[in-house]
Every structure is written in C-alpha cells, then in structure tokens.
Amino acid sequence: MFSHVIKVTLIGASLLLSTNTFAVPVQFSFASNTALTTDLLAYHSGSLSLALSAKQISGDTETAVDLYQDSNGIGAYSGGSDNTELDAYGPDESLYLQFNQSVSLLNASFSQIGTNDDFQLFVDDELKFDSAIPGGNASDTGISEMEFTDMLFSGTLFRFAPINTYDDFSLSSITVDFAENPSETTTVPIPASLWLVLSGLGAMLSVRRMQREGSNIDANSLLA
Question: What is the DSSP string of 105-157?
Fold first, then answer.
C-alpha cells in the first residue's frame, strides 16, 4: 500500500517538474489607413519578430525595391509607372517575410485580386506551393483568404510571388503558429510540503520493512 502511495506521489512530483511550451497562433495584419513607401517593415508579437522586404528578381539577379503599404495590405513598388501590388509586369517582384524563429503558416489573405491572378509560395527558398488565388473579379478588387493549416509549411523565411506576367495582388495578412519562447522552459517548483510528505512516506516504508524483517527473524527462530 505504501509503495503505491509513494508511486502516485512521485508521478505527481514529475508532473509538477515538467516543462512546457505552448503553440501560439498569431495574426499579422498589413493593412494601413496611411499609405507608406519604405524599404523595410517590422512587426513583433511576444517573442516573435517579423521583418518584411521586397525584391525584383530577373534570372540570377535580385534587386531590392520598396514595399508599398496601404488599406489593401502590402505590395512592392520599384518607382516610375510600376503599380503598387506584387506583380510580374517587368522583373518578377517578391515579398519576403523573415521570422526570428520557425513558424507554421496557417493562412494568408490577399486583396486586389483579379480573375486570373496566381501566386507561388517559397519556404526557406524552396518552392512549396503555387495556385490560382480564388475570389477575384474583373475590376481587380477581389479579396481572398487561403488556408494552409493541413499543409505543414514551416520555416523562418516565406516568399510570396506572382507567377505569370499579368498576376498582381497585395498581401493583406498572415496567421502563423509558433512555440512561445522555445528556448525557455517554465519550471514549476515542488512545494516544500511535498518533500515533507515524501520524506514521511519514506520513513514509514522503512519502518514497515524493518517490521517485516523482524517478523521473519522471529519465525525463523521458532522453526529452529
């Protein structure tokens, strides 16, 4: 009986000592009421940091371009007559999302979607997904949200890019899942009273064992 009590108590102690990290879904919304042209945008949520930048890619040549942010979300702008969405009218434009730790992409929202807009998604520089963006219309004002929960796209660098010449869109938001403080653990201290209980149970078990040994000695004496 005593051994069973001690076993249960030790299990409880191990649970108290266990360390935990928690998966935390975080949404980053990129829409802004104020139009902004900049080379870099940064976002923070708890221990998670996100930096956004944009590039034009032509063959092996990559050129940094400005981000353009407005009420539709984020696009890219290289100056002159270039529109402010992510497009492939000249060199292909790409939007880079760099996280400070590994995350899993849950969903992404797009805006300014036409009837024929496609995109591709790279994770840590590897092409993972390409698709038409649903919800477009002829006036290029469609809004769409795509789910990636079941696709298990995890990494630290995500890149959204158009595929064909006439693809153009803005990224409105993304939602990611990450382990809060993955390098830290939360340890729950064992209360002093629990140590007293364990010590008491250990002493009781020792007394019990001594009593059993004494009984065995008496029985052996009688048999002799």
Answer: EEEEEEEEE-TT-EEEEEETTEEEEEEEPSS--TTS-EEEEEE-GGG--EEEE
> Of 1, 186, 20, which Cα lies nearest the Cα of 9?
1
Say if CB 39 and CB 22 are below 8 A apart.
no
Query: What integer best gives the mean pLDDT of the chain?
Result: 81
Distances (CA, A) of 86 to 2, 95, 199, 224: 70, 7, 67, 98
Q: pTM (2 decimals)? A: 0.72
**Phi, psi torsion values for 120, nearest 5 degrees:** -130, 150
Q: How far apart are CA 139 and CA 167, in angstroms?
A: 14
CB 131 within 8 Å of CB 169: no
